[in-house]
Amino acid sequence: MAILRAMKAAAVIEQYKNGRRDFRGESLRGGNFRGADLAGADFSGCDIRGTNFSRANLTGVKFTWAKAGLQKRWLMILLGLALALMMFSSFFSAFGGYVVGLIFDSNPENQVTGWFTLIFLICFCAVTWRKNILAGAGAGAVAGAGAVAGAGAVAGAGAGAGAVSGAVARAVAVARAAAAAVAGRVAGALTLFYFWLGWLTLKQEHRDPWLRKIVIAFAAIGGTSFFQANLTATDFTGATLKSTNFNQAILNRTIFKQAIKLELARPGNTLLANPRVREFLIDSRTGSGKDFAQADLRGAYLEGANLQAANLRLADISEASLQYANLAGANLTEVNAVNTDLRHATLTGACVENWNIDATTQLDEVDCQYIYLLNGQKERRPSSGEFQPGEFTKLFAEMFDTVDLIFRNGVDWKAFIAALKEVQVQNENTPLQVQSIANKGDGVIVVKVHVPSDTDKEKIHQEFNQNYQLQLAAIEAQYKAQLTAKETEIAIYRQQSVDMMEITKTLANRPIHVEAKAMSHSNDSSPNITIRDINNSAVNFGEIIGDVTNTINQIAADASPENAQLKALLQELTQAIEIDSHLDEEEKAEAANQVKKIAQASQNPDDAGLQKKAQRAVNFLETIAKALEPASKLAQACQKALPIILKTLGF
User: Fold this and answer.
1) pTM for the predicted model, two decimal places
2) What SS3 class is residue 436?
3) What sections of the protein cross the membrane (predicted)?
4) What is the location of CATH 3.30.310 in the chain?
5) At what angle are helices 108-130 and 141-153 packed, to 10 degrees?
6) Which residue from 193, 224, 254 is spatially nearest to 51, judged by alpha carbons?
7) φ, ψ dihedrals at 627, nearest 5°
8) Which residue, 67, 260, 454, 501, has most beta carbons within 10 Å?
9) What is the CATH number of domain 274-400?
10) Which of 500-504, 523-527, 601-605 has the lowest mean pLDDT?
C-alpha cells in the first residue's frame, strides 16, 4: 500500500495560487483550509481526516475516493470520553442492581423496594426495546438516564462494561453473597442492554433520532469539517465520509455517488438529513416507484436517476440536476422545478399538474411522447397521438415568453390598445403581441402578451399597468365631458320643448279662419309636409339635405388629403341618413343638421365655437348610432366614419 505524502495546508494554498490544481494522492490530514478558495482543485484519493474546510470555496473540487473522518489522536480522545461516560452509566446500572438485590434483604420494606425496582426496570427495557428511549423513559428517570449514557458510550468503548459495572455493584452491594450476585448480574445486564440500545440507535435511524443526532455530533468533533463551505458541484464519489461535518454547507449539485458511511456524517440542515434522500443520492438507480412526496431535493445531483413512476408531489427539485433522468410516469404535481436541469430527461406519461417552472428550467431535448395535466391520467397532451421531437419543449417554452395581464373588472380595450402602444414605444419598439385572451369568470380577464425571450417581463408588466391606469383616467374624463355636454343638450331640448308648448297654447287660443280658393292647373294633390322650428319657419327635409350637401361641397377637397377624406365621409353620412329606414323625418333632419355643423367646423378650424359644436355633433351622432340596430345604414356609417373624423379634426 502506497504511503501518502504529507503536505501542509499553507503549501497547498501557495501552489494553488501558482496554478496547480492536481493534488491527487496527497495527505492533507489535519490541515486548516478555513476560508480558502480552492475551486476546481482535484483532491482525489487524498487523506483529509481531521482537515478543516470550514467556509472554504470548494466549487467543482474533486474528493473522489478520499478518506475523511477522525485522526487517531482525536479517536483516542473520544474513546476516553466514551469510557468516562460508560463508567458513569455503570454507576446507574450498579445502583439499579443494588436496589434489586434488596429483594433478599431481611427487611420487608427493602424487599418491596427491590421487587418494585425489578418490575420497573423490566417495564422500561421492554418498552424501550419495542419503541424508543423516550417511551421507555416514562417508566423511570434513573433507568432513562442510564440508557442515554449507554447510547453515548457506543461511540467508542463498551468492551469492559460488564466488568466495570460488576466492580461498582460489588462495592455498594449488600454483604450477603446472593444479593451481591443478583446485583452484579442486573448491573451487567443493564449495561449490555444500553450497549445494544446505542448500537441500534445508530443502525436504525427512525429510532430516537434526537439521540442519534447527539451521538453523531459528538463523534464528528475533530473530524473533517465542511461547516458553511461552498460545495457546489463538488464530487465525493466513493469517498469515506464518517465523522464528517456538513452542517450549513452549500450542497448544490454535489455528487455523493457510492459514498461510504455517509449515514455517520453530521448532516446539519442540509438535504442529507433525510435518510431517504441521502440513500438515493448514494445510489440514484433505486428511486423507481419510491415516495418522495414533499422531499427536499433542492440542488440535488440526480443525473441519470431512475424515478420512473415515483411520487414527487410537492417536492422541491429546484436547482437540481436531472439530466438523462427517467421520470416516465412520475407524479410531478405541484413540484418546484425552478432552475432545474431536465435536459435529455424522459417525461413520457408524467403528471405535471400545477408544476412550478420558469424560464430558468432547462427542457432542451426532453424525451416526451405525452403528458397529463391533471392527476389520474386526465387531460392528456396531446389529446391524441404523440409529441413530435422538440414539440414538448416548444409547448412550455412559449409559456416563458409571455406577460400575463390580469383584469379583475373587465377590460377597456381602447385603454388597453393605447397602453400597449405606449409601452412598445417606451421599450424601443419591442414587439408586443396579444397571444391569448381568457375569461376566468367573475369579471376576471387574463390577457397573455408575447414578448421576446430576453425582455424584462417585470418592467413590461409594471409599465403597462401604469399606462393603462393613465389611459383609463383620460377616457373617464372624456366620457364625463361628453356626458356633461349631453346633459346640456338635453336641458336645451327640454327648454325648447317648453317654448314650443307655450307657442302651441298661444296659437290654439287664436281663431281659425278657413278660406277656400279655387285652384287651377294644379297637378300635385298630395299634402306638403313641413317642419317648423321655434322661429316658426317651415323647412322641408329635402331642403335640409340640400343645404347640408351644399355645405359639404364647399370643403376644399384639393387642399389636403385629409380634407378630401373628410368630405367623402360626410357625404357617406348624409347619404346614410337620407336612406336609413330606422329614422323618422324629424330624426333624419336632426342628424343631417349635425353633419352640417361638422362640415362648417372643418371650413373654419380657428373658430372655437364651431369646433365645440362639431364635437358635440359627433357625440350626438354616436348616441343616435348606438340606439339603432347594428345593421342600420347610419350605425354602420358612424362606426366607420366618426373615429376618422375625430382624428382629422384633432378632437
Assistant:
1) 0.55
2) strand
3) 74-100, 112-129, 141-165, 177-202, 214-233
4) 402-478
5) 50
6) 224
7) -80, -15
8) 67
9) 2.160.20.80
10) 523-527
